[in-house]
Design a protein that fits this description.
Blueprint (H helix, E strand, L loop, with lengths): L3 E2 L3 H14 L6 E6 L7 E6 L4 H10 L7 E4 L5 H13 L2 E6 L2 E5 L10 H4 L9 H8 L1 E5 L12 H9 L3 E5 L2 E5 L10 E3 L5 H12 L4 E5 L5 H12 L3 E3 L5 E5 L10 E3 L4 H14 E7 L7 H10 L3 E4 L2 E5 L14 E2 L11 H10 L2 E6 L10 H6 L3 E6 L2 E6 L7 E3 L3 H13 L3 E7 L2 H4 L3 H7 L3 E5 L2
Parallel strand pairs: 1-5, 3-15, 4-14, 10-11, 18-19, 22-23
Antiparallel strand pairs: 2-23, 2-24, 4-6, 5-6, 7-9, 8-9, 11-13, 12-13, 15-17, 16-17, 19-21, 20-21
The structure holds uridine-diphosphate-2(N-acetylglucosaminyl) butyric acid (EPU).
Length: 459
Amino acid sequence: MKVKNVGIKNDFLRHSQQKKAIFDENKKDKFIIKGLDGKKKLNGKISVAGAKNAALPAFAASILFRDRFCVSNVPNIKDVDSINALLEKLGAVVEKQIEKKYRIVTDKIKSIILDTEISKKMRGSIVLTGPLLARFGKVSFPHPGGCVIGARPIDAFLNGFQKMGAKVQNRNGKYIVSIGRNKKLKGAKIFFNKISVTGTETLMLAGILAKGRTVIENAALEPEIKHLADFLNSCGAKIKGAGTSTIEIIGGNLLSAGNKAYKIPPDRIEAGSFLILGALSADNLEITNCDPEHMKALINILRNSGVHIIEEKNKIIIKNNRKIKNKDFKCVDIKTHEYPGFPTDLQSPMAIYLTQVSGKSLLFETIFEGRLNYIDDLIKMGANIIMRDTHRIMIKGPTQLKGRELVGKDLRAEFAFFIAAIVAKGKSIINNVRYIDRGYEQIEKRLSDIGVNIQRING
Ligand code: EPU
């Protein structure tokens, strides 16, 4: 695979090795974690990486640029390697310049076919389809893969493309979406029946090169969308309303970034997971490089439950009074909601929290129909959980969790198992780790730096 390196040799080697690992399905690591038995012993600073779910649409947006697109604060994770590999297979040149900074040139793209094997690894691959269709008039792709947390249909994307004048076909399990030779997508009014994050990103990016005005109604409000739209506007795009439920895009020509680089915003889901871990297991923890403004739902809920949280500009500090035990925190009901509500991606870490606090909490997962399948393992660890239906559970706390062997069910639930293992009494082994490196960089180093007894055993 061609990776042109303009940076440090070691960086190049590690990057190439990581890329090789993406395709090495047999290599599955495991983690051994020694639990703290509910004690609050973690201390120090943990830094938050750039957001996975902001990096993927940013790499996709590179296709809309006539010249190079530079991006910084890129997390060192497998999903980024996968989207780079997809871009390279299309003919783009992806250069890792220095740690966390990439330069992408897409004017040599020759293919409009997304590689099936890589696309099946992550949902975020679908965001490439909007820019590819808008720039080259055609795109072919499989149903995207990613975490199995529900059916995850793509009707909103396909309907949107059709409204913009494209023809959608499905041949041998692959979608082929085309506008026709030398034609452009047409601006259109698109209403989402269900709010979709990647759907909003994909159609917003497609609208940038379409003819005329595209309006997306009932759009997702995630801060990553506004952050990207602001940057694209500074490069010539005309996007209004990103960050609200109605986004208007006036289509135009290819974009140009000049000397500017897009900086990936901090990962609010990673920061939130660290905050939950800190609330349960830290004496004094500083979560740095994060934006508390994007984490209001979680911070508010934890405060209601009794956690002492200090918010600073790019930092959150948890100071746990030693006299306060987890059982002194109050139960809280959780209902996941699109941003700015409680994120579905923090639902599983929050479930661990609720097993430790006093009282009965109702947890209602409203976004995905298959995102509670980690519960059985939690019950085996000693949690008192009643499953009401596939969307709702009742958690009664506090319970002492006991370490055991676990296998992650999806990216966020796998990290939730890390939290459970840290809180538990005894040793846990998280086997067959498939997800964690997709979304959390150097997790064992960052956790051990704050006092977690964690060891990675290479598969
Ligand atoms: N939906 C449809 N039709 C569509 C698209 C979505 O019915 O065409 C439904 C989904 O089935 C779901 C709801 O709409 O019930 C919301 O799905 P959405 O499209 O917003 O999810 P996504 O874009 O596939 C992104 C994140 C997820 C995160 C969700 C919700 C990326 C790459 N993924 O997924 O992140 O959980 O938004 O916030 O941005 C993760 O990072 O681990 C992860 C799963």
